Amino acid sequence: MSTITVYIPRDTAAVAMGAHEIAQQLAAQAQERGLDIQIVRNGSRGLLWLEPLVEVQTAAGRVAYGPVQTEDLPGLFDAGFLQGGTHKLCHGLTDAIPYLKNQERLTFARVGIIDPVSVADYQACGGFEGLSKALAMETAAIVKEVTDSGLRGRGGAAFPTGIKWNTVLNTPAQQKYIVCNADEGDSGTFSDRMLMEGDPLCLIEGMTIAGLAVGATYGYIYVRSEYPLAVQALNEAIEAARAAGWLGKNIQGSGYEFDLEVRKAAGAYICGEETALLDSLEGKRGMVRVKPPLPAIKGLFGQPTVINNVVSLASVPVILAKGGAYYQNYGMGRSRGTLAFQLTGNLQNGGLVEKAFGVTLRELLYDYGGGSASGRPLRAVQVGGPLGAYLPEHQWDVPLDYETYMKINAMVGHGGLVAFDDTVDMAHMAQYAMEFCAIESCGKCTPCRIGSTRGVETIQKIRRREDMDNHVELLRDLCDTMFSGSLCALGGMTPYPVLSALEHFPQDFGLAPQTEQDLAKV
C-alpha cells in the first residue's frame, strides 16, 4: 500500500481549534490500523469556520473534511476517508468548494497547498521564479516592473510601491534596508499572519527581490509579539532558504548578498505606523516621527529604507515571475491586482478571500460570508480596521476600490471586514473607536492625545442626551481637528468610524433618522 498524504494546518486558527491534537491522534490511530500515512502541516486555506480542515490526497485531488475533532477520527477512518470516502464532514474536492473556487489567488496561491517551510515544495509550485528573473535584471528594470504592475501598499496607505522603491534606489548610501511591517494590529485582520504561517518563503523572496531592486543587503521582519507561530515559521523558512542558497552571501552564485532576521514587537498598536516601527527597531520607544524626511530617504538608523507590509512584499514574486502586465490585468481603476479580504464579525463563514479589486461588500458578505451568524439582518460593516468607516447597507454595492471608497469617505485599508447585525448600537461603536485611539495613542501630538480623550467624553454626553446640538457640533469640530492636525493616521483617521456612525446611524445617538433624501445625497 502506498503512502497516503494527509494535510493538517499549522495555522494559528487551526491550532486554536485543536489541529495539533488532531495530527497526533490521527497518526496514532493510523499506526494502530496499520495504515501508512504522511502528515504535512500546511497553512490554512482560509475557510476558518471549517478549521481544523483535514485534507487527504487522492487520485482525483485533495478531499476536504472539517471541522474535524478528535472524537470524529474513528468514524472518519471507518468511512474510508483516506481514500476520499463519504462522511458528514466531507466537503468533496477542496478546489471545488465554491468559497475557494471563485477566488483569484495570486499572492495566496500556495497558502494551504504546500509545507510552508519546505524549499522543495515552494519551488515545485513556482517559488523563486521571480527572484531568479530578478537576479538577471538591472535594478531599475526590477523597480519598473513593480511600478508597471500598479501594486500599491497593502497595509492600508495604498502608496504606489514602485515610487517608494524608486526613491530608495536613487538615494545614495553605503547601507540600505528592507523592513517588513508585520505588526498586524488592526481588528478583523489576519492576512499577514496567514501568509507568514502558510507561505513564509514567499515573503522572504519578495524582500530579497526588493533588496536587489534598491541595493539593500539586509532586512528585518517586524512581527507582532502575539504571533508566535508566525515567528516560528519565519525562522524555520529563513534557515531553509539560507541552506538552499537563496539567502545570505552570493545568492545562487550571482554575487548578490541579502540576509534578514525576525524582530518581535512589544505590543504597541502605534508601532504599525512606519516611523514608530523604525524607532522601535532602533531600540527606542515607538513614537511617530515628523516627516519629512521620509523613511525612503532617512529611515532605519538614518539610512534609506523600504518599508512595506507583508502582503505588499509577498505580491512581488508573482509580479516578477509573470510580469507587471499580468498583475495589472486584475482590478479596476488605479487599484490593480488583488487584495486578501478578511471576513470577521457576525458572519456564518468567516475567513480569507483573495479577490481582484472591484468586488462589492454585498458579494463578500453573502456569497462568501454566508450572511449573519445570528440569523438576524446585517446592519453595518466596518471596512479597513478600527480606523475604517462603518458602512450601511445602501453602500454595500460600491466597488471595493481605493478611489471609489475615498469618494464615500471610507477606506479599503488592510482589507479587514467586521460585520454587525441589527442589534448593534452604533453610538457605542463610535465611542469605542475614540477610546481605542485614546488608549493606543503614542501621545506625541496634541490632536490625537487630547482630541480622542475629549471625543470619548463628548460622545458619552451625547449618549446621555445632554445638550445634544452643542455636543454634536463639538464632536464634529474635534474630528476635524484630529483629521487635519494629527501626525499620523491613528489620530487622523479615527474620525472616519466616528463620523460615519453619526452620519449613517443618527438614531443611535438620539438624533433624527436619515430620510430618503439624505440617502440620495450619498
TrEMBL record:
The keyword Metal-binding applies. CDD domains: TRX_Fd_FDH_beta (cd03063). Its cofactor is FMN. Residues 427-472 form the NADH-ubiquinone oxidoreductase 51kDa subunit iron-sulphur binding domain. PROSITE patterns: COMPLEX1_51K_2. Keywords: 4Fe-4S, Iron, Iron-sulfur, Metal-binding. InterPro entries: NADH-UbQ_OxRdtase_51kDa_CS, Nuo51_FMN-bd, Nuo51_FMN-bd_sf, Nuop51_4Fe4S-bd, Nuop51_4Fe4S-bd_sf, Thioredoxin-like_sf. Pfam families: Complex1_51K, NADH_4Fe-4S. PANTHER family: NADH-QUINONE OXIDOREDUCTASE SUBUNIT F. Belongs to the complex I 51 kDa subunit family. This is NADH-quinone oxidoreductase subunit NuoF. It comes from Alcaligenes aquatilis.
